[in-house]
Amino acid sequence: MRPLRKPLLELTAQDIMSEDLVLLTETMSLREAARQLVRNQISGAPVVDAAGRCVGVLSASDFLRLAEKRETATEPAAPAHAITCSFQTKVEAPQGGERILCTLPPGSCAVQIIETEPTGRRSILCASPHAVLTDWQVVQVEDLPPDQVRNFMTRDAVTVSLDTGIRTLARMMIDAHIHRLVVVDDQLKPLGIVSSTDLLAALAYADLH
């Protein structure tokens, strides 16, 4: 977030939005979209068409709805294991049995355990291999259908303009029961994201006078 030099209630979407956007295309496979969310550690992203216009949002909520429908799905079959982090991998332990390794870089996950073997080799283990740690880890990517994002995204994306005031932003989130708004230009091309976290940061750091 850029430095805030306005009184709190004068802030607009342009003042508090995150401009580091991850955009998904509507023709992207659901699996690749999930990889993008996991790789960037985000819970959702705008979906754009071939012209770059926002046509929807794909979020963790969409994956959860998909998981709920799997009981009646025939292809692919529902996984027998719990839905957990996609960065886990099983290896055989030196003393027998198996261990769950984390393939994320050291320090990038709060439940990593760094283990040093007698040979000096270091391994990164997962301390909670069966837990859903955060909402960007809710899927096993390879278990997802190969279909395109357009078949699973939420189409009625809630969009705002750069000059939308902070009170309006907060009301829109409350009324729509969502945690992010897509900031677009007059051609519906995404410019940024205002999340509930951005609103909290504005409250914490803005001039209250």
Low-confidence stretches: 73-83
Strand order of the largest sheet: 1-2-3
> What is the typical, i.e. mean, pLDDT?
81
Sketch the major β-sheet.
3 strands, mixed
What share of the residues does DSSP label as strand, in percent?
Answer: 15-25%
Give the proportion of residues in helices.
Answer: 10-25%
C-alpha end-to-end distance: 20 Å
CATH architecture of the largest domain: Roll
Which structural class fits the helix and strand makeup? alpha/beta
CATH topology of the largest domain: CBS-domain
User: Quaternary status of these chains?
Assistant: single chain
Fourth CATH level, the homologous superfamily of the largest domain: CBS-domain
The gross shape turns out to be globular
Number of helical stretches of at least 4 residues: 5
Task: Indicate the CATH class of the largest domain.
Answer: Alpha Beta
The whole-angstrom Rg is 20 Å
Please render the helix and strand layout as text.
Elements lengths: L12 H4 L7 E2 L4 H11 L3 E5 L5 E6 H10 L18 E5 L5 E5 L9 E5 L5 E5 L32 E2 L5 H11 L3 E5 L5 E6 H10 L4
Parallel strand pairs: 1-2, 8-9
Antiparallel strand pairs: 2-3, 4-5, 6-7, 9-10
In short:
This protein is an alpha/beta fold and about 210 residues long.
Tell me what you see in this structure.
- The protein is of the alpha/beta class.
- The protein has 2 domains: 8-80 and 136-205, CBS-domain (Roll); 89-131, no CATH class.
- Helix content is 22%, strand content 22%.
- The strands form 4 sheets. The chain has a 3-stranded mixed beta sheet.
- Helix 2 (30-40) links the parallel strand 1 (24-25) and strand 2.
- The longest helix is centred in the first third of the chain and has 11 residues, at 30-40.
- It is globular, with a radius of gyration of 20 Å.
- The model is unreliable at 73-83 (pLDDT under 50).
